[in-house]
């Protein structure tokens, strides 16, 4: 219930204005966001690289309806990739197509995504709400003609996902499997956590049995145990799949998996447009809301 309210608030301009203006919000946001500037992102990524963690970096922003903002987002990725090269660290990019024009000009989104692919070692397209899935998969198919390693996030909670995965589990594909973070109607997505978890396991099985490279994006220990069983069953060793987790969430678990020899990639968001991302993290876990409220109360 609280989660649903927070997801609704994540799309409210009014709540966005008041939360963004609260003096202590920034302190709490810092737990989930690596900073606002290119230099802060480079520093955070360097720190993760030193801890033997791989990175995919997200320039925060979504649902842009302005072509100047879409162009600025693409430029921000290119600038960051240049700064990372200079600093001698490598990171993949995660891109929300709605931040580069998908909502009003799909062609523009494709062109900006191409520019980002050309500047980055590897790109994964984030998946946003269900109305964008066909468009995102269409753009992915176009990008893969020139950048065959481009990956995509697929959301286990959507009823359509097993069908999509059958098309995507082939040779060379890179799929990041997530549970799904948006508020979706029952007509398109499982509503109950148990059903989502079961759907995740079915999807994971398709990916682990397939020929592509599964990116298992979760903080859920049960899913991690099941991934290990499936890796055994389908003869996948450490380099044949990877784990992904969000910046600031279960850091100890990230480090333990990396120390055990797994590739662990941390999703590092940076930039000043953190509101939607931050609210989805609060919605995922009531304990994070308590943390937020305590900080606002000065504790
Ligand atoms: P849950 O069942 O939510 O959580 C399992 C356990 O993990 C919890 O009990 C708790 O211990 C811990 N945990 C989970 N979330 C938090 C949190 N916020 N704070 C602290 N502890 C927590 N979703 C999309 O819709 N599209 C995307 O493109 C997308 N990309 C993602 C990329 C990465 C690398 C990751 C890790 C997630 C991404 N997500 C994306 C979000 C995803 O859909 C889930 O909402 C999120 O990962 C929570 O699900 P979970 O698998 O961790 O399991």
Walkthrough of the structure:
InterPro entries: FAD-linked_oxidoreductase-like, PRODH_bac_arc, Proline_DH_dom, Proline_oxidase. Pathway: Amino-acid degradation; L-proline degradation into L-glutamate; L-glutamate from L-proline: step 1/2. The chain has about 300 residues and is α/β, with parallel strands linked by helices. The protein has a single domain, classed as TIM Barrel. Helices cover about 50% and strands about 15% of the residues. It has helices spanning about 1-10, 15-20, 25-30, 40-50, 65-85, 105-120, 135-145, 160-170, 195-210, 220-235, 250-260, 275-285, 285-295, and strands at about 55-60, 90-95, 125, 150-155, 175-180, 215, 240-245, 265-270. Strands 1-2-3-4-5-6-7-8 form an eight-stranded parallel β-barrel, surrounded by seven helices. Strand 2, helix 6 and strand 3 (about 125) form a beta-alpha-beta unit. Helix 4 packs across helix 5. It starts with a helix and ends with a helix. The relative contact order is 0.16.
Write a brief structural summary.
The chain is an alpha/beta fold.
Write the layout of secondary structure elements.
Layout: H1 2-9, H2 13-21, H3 25-29, H4 38-50, E1 54-59, H5 67-87, E2 92-95, H6 106-119, E3 123-125, H7 133-146, E4 151-155, H8 161-168, E5 174-178, H9 193-209, E6 213-217, H10 221-233, E7 242-246, H11 251-259, E8 264-270, H12 275-284, H13 286-296
Parallel strand pairs: 1-2, 1-8, 2-3, 3-4, 4-5, 5-6, 6-7, 7-8
The chain binds flavin-adenine dinucleotide.
């Amino acid at each position: 219930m609280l989660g649903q309210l927070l997801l609704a608030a994540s799309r409210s301009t009014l709540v966005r204005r008041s939360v963004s203006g609260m003096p202590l919000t920034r302190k709490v946001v810092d737990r989930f966001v690596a900073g606002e500037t290119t230099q802060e992102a480079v520093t955070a990524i360097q720190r993760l690289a030193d801890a033997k963690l791989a990175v995919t970096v997200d320039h925060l922003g979504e649902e842009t309806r302005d072509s100047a903002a879409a162009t600025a987002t693409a430029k921000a990725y290119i600038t960051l990739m240049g700064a990372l090269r200079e600093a001698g660290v490598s990171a993949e990019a995660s891109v929300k197509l709605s931040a580069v024009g998908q909502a009003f000009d799909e062609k523009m989104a494709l062109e900006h995504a191409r520019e980002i692919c050309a500047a980055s070692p590897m790109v994964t397209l984030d998946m946003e709400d269900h109305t964008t899935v066909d468009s995102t998969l269409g753009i992915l198919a176009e990008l893969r003609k020139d950048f065959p390693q481009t990956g995509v996030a697929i959301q286990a909670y959507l009823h359509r996902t097993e069908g999509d995965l059958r098309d995507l589990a082939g040779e060379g594909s890179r799929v990041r499997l997530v549970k799904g973070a948006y508020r979706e109607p029952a007509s398109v997505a499982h509503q109950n956590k148990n059903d989502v978890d079961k759907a995740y396991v079915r999807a994971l099985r398709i990916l682990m049995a397939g020929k592509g490279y599964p990116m298992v994006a979760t903080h859920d220990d049960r899913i991690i145990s099941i991934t290990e069983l499936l890796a055994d069953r389908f003869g996948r060793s450490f380099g044949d799949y990877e784990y992904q987790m969000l910046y600031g969430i279960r850091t100890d678990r990230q480090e333990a998996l990396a120390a055990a020899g797994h590739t662990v990639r941390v999703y590092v968001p940076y930039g000043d447009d953190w509101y939607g991302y931050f609210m989805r993290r609060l919605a995922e876990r009531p304990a994070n809301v308590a943390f937020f409220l305590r900080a606002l109360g000065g504790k």
